[in-house]
Amino acid sequence: MKRIFHWLDENLEEFLLVIGLIAMTLIMGVQVFCRYVLGMSLSWSEELTRYIFIWCGFLSVSYCSKKCLSIKIEQFVAIFPRRGKAIFKIVNHTFELILFLYLIPFAWKYLLSAIANGQTSPAMGIPM
């Protein structure tokens, strides 16, 4: 059981991102086949692909934070000694945390308004 949790801790985001990419590729491949070979298109495929893409974007933020792959000036960081790089990493993660904490109330407000208005997905008809 401990090995399973360790594997999930190390690889879950990467695994889900790969699954998302495969799903987007397959869904759009089926859409292209249906449109050009069968002469009909799927009403839900582009919207589902868009949602998978958005979730992959969110997962990539988590993955990049865990692997310390964020937008920063590598040449600027490279001039620092090891201790300076560690300090820069702490400052970088602190700014990321502040930004995400700042965005939470706006996301929550948007979610509540979508629920209150009964907003649904246009093609798939699921609640947003």
Descriptive key words:
128 residues; mainly alpha; 4 helices
Helix-strand layout with pairing:
Elements: H1 2-36, H2 45-66, H3 74-78, H4 82-116
Helix pairs in contact: 1-2
Please tell me about this protein's structure.
This protein has 128 residues and is mostly helical. The model has no long low-confidence stretch (mean pLDDT 84). The two termini are 35 Å apart. It contains four helices and no strands. Helices cover 76% and strands 0% of the residues.
Low-pLDDT residue spans? none
- For the CA atoms, what is the radius of gyration? 20 Å
What is the typical, i.e. mean, pLDDT? Answer: 84
Q: Tally the beta strands.
A: 0
SSE succession: HHHH
- C-alpha end-to-end distance: 35 Å
Sheet-strand content, in percent, reads under 5%
Outline of the structure:
This protein has helices at residues 2-36, 45-66, 74-78, 82-116.
